[in-house]
Amino acid sequence: GRIIHLADYRPTDFVLERVDLTFELDPTNTKVDARLIFHRREGADPGAPLVLDGDELSLSGLLFDQGEIPASQYDATPESLTIRDLPAQTPFEITITTFINPEANTQLMGLYRTNGIYCTQCEAEGFRRITYFPDRPDVLAPYTITIIADKAANPVLLSNGNFLGGGGYDEGRAFAAWFDPHPKPSYLFALVAGDLGVVEDTFTTMSGREVALKIYVEHGKEARVGYAMDALKRSMKWDEEVFGREYDLDIFMIVAVSDFNMGAMENKGLNVFNDKYVLADPEIATDADYANIEAIIAHEYFHNWTGNRITCRDWFQLCLKEGLTVYRDHEFSADQRSRAVKRIAEVRHLKSEQFPEDAGPLAHPVRPTKYREINNFYTTTVYEKGSEVTRMIATILGPQLFKAGMDLYFERHDGEAATIEDFVKCFEDASGRDLTQFSLWYHQAGTPLVSVSSAFDQPKGVFTLSFEQLVPPTPGQSAKEPMHIPLRFGLLLPDGTEAKPTAIEGAEVTGDVLHLTRRNQVVTFSGIAGRPVVTLNRGFSAPVNVHFEQAPADLAHIARHDADLFARWQAFSDIALPNLVEAARKARDGGEITVDPLLAETLIAVAGDETLEPAFRAQILALPSEADVAREHGSNNDPDAIRAGREAVLSVVAHQGAALFAALFDRNHTRGSFTPDAASAGKRTLRNAALGYLAIAEGTPERAAKAFATADNMTDLSAALTVLAHRFPEAPETEAALESFRARFAENPLVIDKWFAIQATIPGSGALARVERLMESPLFNGSNPNRVRALVGTFAFSNPTGFNRPDGEGYRFLASQILEIDPKNPQLAARILTSMRSWRALEEVRAEHALNALRRIAGAEKLSADVSDIVERMLN
Ligand code: HT7
Ligand code: ZN
């Protein structure tokens, strides 16, 4: 495919006034009539043709103002429809007829079928698989939709907007008509038809309008939508209270489907969800599932304003809706749950997913300037780093000015397709602050590294911090400018209070935020009575790596006493990581593995502190992961050594803390009183973390087997099964538990995905054979994205030792899988392939095997644009 450049953006020559679509649904031969009213844009070339996008289409009929049009006036190919000699000034109507085959659509883009349900996915460029259309986000129009379908098979006929009417159409067929008055781009179009169950509720908006809420699921699953409905109502309320945003149609619908490429989709008034993010009850859903459902329901709902009412001018602006909406869903979850624990989870995710992307061959700016395949830019950089950039605007401006900027954005750009520049300008205008340098966060890829050193002049009472910032080179960007980095900080005095400097020089400081803006910056704090311990980047106020050699005792002081819980967790990680890296080195090069006694001491002190919430203590127990160690180590990584070193550290902690872990395990069960709220979930996380350590300390599967047998919810059941499978893969108890889990949930594919994932992450070289065996199981279905992600995806992304086998078999397996998935579902194939994005950081034997596997993919005869884009960038 050719490369699309931001610099080439031009508005369309024609303005689309109205869209009127009629679907005559048929599983293999659906007829689509599209009536489109256009007029030529003022100032546009009067001779310019109308060029519409298509993808695998064939034209069956074309009318101009309801009349015939000579064949010489247009050209149709599968990819485009060009019509010439159109009026210079007056509006005109084009009617296009296409026939499409939903049943044959395995890409899950456009109109497709899933378990007998008709369903659409149009973002980013799926609408052009339905009809010829100006399929770009800056073309907005109101839509009228008529759906005609077999009545018995399709009692439910849904589209965007408000319901106009419906009923019998002709013998055996029914129709329904919908009108969406809010102008929208084609990517927000949706249609759903089939035989579905529904759960209904209502929400009264802040201005007193009653909105009908409907969640559609497969029959028999209605009892599992209560949590999603509750999350939806809380989201609607929160957006009114925090952002002043009210819902704007008479009805809001969610449909859960079982074949979906991503998590969910924010189509106007008709969100379509991967059923994994809707269906929940204590028997089938873990606490993590509940939290994900809450977050994704909120995210899609919040898009109604950030994405739909104000959309993106072009796909380069994707972070305008995604980064902002992730920020909004993060804030929502923080308000619904524990803010500190939520922040820790976000930062863990950012560091384990986004930081590696930003440090590898797929690195790109939050607002890219070129792409080959837009589907490959729905990345953690656009989403999560995009959210962090929004968060930094809030940090720099403070809550009031941030709110004023958001209000201005909604007021100024409602109904428009906007850019990042438009967005940033609203904050500049609302605050009077120049955000030019700050905007580099949108344009420069790579995680900035901030190196810090400190000095204290006791007689003068002056404390000095010296900063150097460096943004590493990334593909296509070798030299970088210094960024505006807002660092929240504190200076802790030995007595536990915070120093209040009489003067600060060398940097702008607003409240507790220190603004770094130059490559080198020396900041002095006067009037400091005793040597302070610095706590830096509190709350992870900037998405940067900080290198600051702090004494472990100072870090332990922060970990035990900082006022900011997030900073306590961060300081603890800063104690743990060097120990884990050193242990990995020893495991590879030989030498006795030793662990700083402060590590276990601090962990035990914090985990045992009953004044702290259980969920936070559980985060302390979850030491940095093997992937975290690999990232910290940087290059020449040996996943087996990393694991061996980490296991040695875990063992020290497990033995030293055994008594505490036993107490935590006994005291934090929720048996008989399950509720999915954060406090109750926190107890289970703490208890199950303790179980993990006890399995190491005790060395036998008995406790986990008993926990498995007595669990009364999916969180405890799957946690116990994980401990059994990962710690005692060969034990008869494990075999029995795996079999009992399989038999109990064989009818529920979403739960079987957990069974696949637990086995796909059993450490060590045996995992591959097990994964291959599981793929032969009748429970596996290679054309369902959830199944493929649970087994193949989890193995490649989350089993460092199993996937990165030194003999390269893991990579060879993945290459075969990619080549098999690609012809059916390129998006899925490309996404799973990104699991190899850090291949250059591996030690040379593995890196060589990885390179060969990537070359094999690159050399395949027929590759999708999705996979060839990823593989080529990874090889460059
Ligand atoms: N905006 C949605 C993105 C999405 C998507 C993109 C490409 C292909 C399929 C897709 N399904 C959903 C989801 C969101 O960010 O809310
Ligand atoms: Zn989104």
UniProtKB/TrEMBL annotation:
<keyword id="KW-0482">Metalloprotease</keyword>
<feature type="domain" description="Aminopeptidase N-like N-terminal">
    <location>
        <begin position="69"/>
        <end position="188"/>
    </location>
</feature>
<dbReference type="GO" id="GO:0008237">
    <property type="term" value="F:metallopeptidase activity"/>
</dbReference>
<keyword id="KW-0378">Hydrolase</keyword>
<dbReference type="InterPro" id="IPR035414">
    <property type="entry name" value="Peptidase_M1_pepN_Ig-like"/>
</dbReference>
<dbReference type="InterPro" id="IPR045357">
    <property type="entry name" value="Aminopeptidase_N-like_N"/>
</dbReference>
<dbReference type="GO" id="GO:0016285">
    <property type="term" value="F:alanyl aminopeptidase activity"/>
</dbReference>
<dbReference type="InterPro" id="IPR012779">
    <property type="entry name" value="Peptidase_M1_pepN"/>
</dbReference>
<keyword id="KW-0479">Metal-binding</keyword>
<dbReference type="InterPro" id="IPR037144">
    <property type="entry name" value="Peptidase_M1_pepN_C_sf"/>
</dbReference>
<feature type="domain" description="Peptidase M1 membrane alanine aminopeptidase">
    <location>
        <begin position="227"/>
        <end position="438"/>
    </location>
</feature>
<feature type="domain" description="Peptidase M1 alanyl aminopeptidase C-terminal">
    <location>
        <begin position="553"/>
        <end position="876"/>
    </location>
</feature>
<keyword id="KW-0645">Protease</keyword>
<dbReference type="InterPro" id="IPR042097">
    <property type="entry name" value="Aminopeptidase_N-like_N_sf"/>
</dbReference>
<dbReference type="Pfam" id="PF17900">
    <property type="entry name" value="Peptidase_M1_N"/>
</dbReference>
<keyword id="KW-0031">Aminopeptidase</keyword>
<dbReference type="GO" id="GO:0008270">
    <property type="term" value="F:zinc ion binding"/>
</dbReference>
<dbReference type="Pfam" id="PF17432">
    <property type="entry name" value="DUF3458_C"/>
</dbReference>
<dbReference type="InterPro" id="IPR038438">
    <property type="entry name" value="PepN_Ig-like_sf"/>
</dbReference>
<protein>
    <recommendedName>
        <fullName>Aminopeptidase N</fullName>
        <ecNumber>3.4.11.2</ecNumber>
    </recommendedName>
</protein>
<dbReference type="Pfam" id="PF01433">
    <property type="entry name" value="Peptidase_M1"/>
</dbReference>
<dbReference type="InterPro" id="IPR014782">
    <property type="entry name" value="Peptidase_M1_dom"/>
</dbReference>
<dbReference type="InterPro" id="IPR027268">
    <property type="entry name" value="Peptidase_M4/M1_CTD_sf"/>
</dbReference>
<keyword id="KW-0862">Zinc</keyword>
<feature type="domain" description="Peptidase M1 alanyl aminopeptidase Ig-like fold">
    <location>
        <begin position="446"/>
        <end position="548"/>
    </location>
</feature>
<comment type="similarity">
    <text>Belongs to the peptidase M1 family.</text>
</comment>
<dbReference type="InterPro" id="IPR024601">
    <property type="entry name" value="Peptidase_M1_pepN_C"/>
</dbReference>
<dbReference type="Pfam" id="PF11940">
    <property type="entry name" value="DUF3458"/>
</dbReference>
<dbReference type="InterPro" id="IPR001930">
    <property type="entry name" value="Peptidase_M1"/>
</dbReference>
<dbReference type="GO" id="GO:0006508">
    <property type="term" value="P:proteolysis"/>
</dbReference>
